[in-house]
Amino acid sequence: MALPYSLTEPAGAALPLVVDSPHSGLVHAETLPLAAPPEALLTGWDAYVDQLFAHAPMVGGTLLCARFPRWMVDVNRARDDIDPALIDGAMPYAVQPSDKSGRGMGVLRRLALPGVPVYAAPLSPDMAEYLLKTYYDPYHAALSGLLAQHHARSGAVWHIDCHSMKSRGNAMNVDNGVERADFVISNGDGATCSPAFIELVAQCLRGFGYRVGINWPYKGAELIRAYADPAHGRHSLQIEINRALYMDEARFAQHRGFAVLRGHLDQLLEAVAAYIREALAR
Q1: Residue ranges of the chain whose pLDDT lies below 70
Q2: Could you give all domains of the chain from N- to C-terminal order, each with its CATH number?
Q3: Pfam families, alphabetically (predicted)?
């Protein structure tokens, strides 16, 4: 079976920089009892985020992108963050549903949009575990392996976890109805990367004229929390991009802002690479 992710190695000399896009895929082979229409499922797609950060290998970074859809398996959740209401029976281990799964957005999504269930019927425990083993486990193994390899080689590693967000929160979000900033960058209120790293990213984006929020309404989730340890040189931050900057949210189509934004993100990646080279030199 093909890997459920794509991996693009650095084009030249490698830096200990890993950029990942966990929600930009749409491909799966399973036949599932879907209830949500395709347009509702697409609202969870981080459309074109893999393309927006495609410059990462050119600056020495490694780019990891999911091929599978977020509505099916959300790797940015804990593996046991499973809503019992979605499973027809008991999983073979204790589940730990969080507030996210309570709002329909666990590792296996129950809701595509407020009041719009993903599935017409609960999943069997066997199917749930199959999905996790087929998609979740390989993605996490790839990301954790890359971070460990770079940290072992350089003594430090920097990780940027890339997402897009709706321009306004909805009833499944903590900021329901609120107009969002252009970017939200997160480090778990300081837990997942150094203040200097998140400040570098914030100041670079603000220098382009963007409105940047920090740790609200997103604080960062599993992919940065699971592997970060800034005290020991493992720095992870999450970036959320307002979709209105680069696409028509209703039609899922890029507009003229895409090229402008892509150019700015290319420059951001160049700035991050320069920051990493300087940090390693010290």
Answers
A1: 1
A2: 5-281 (3.40.630.40)
A3: FGase
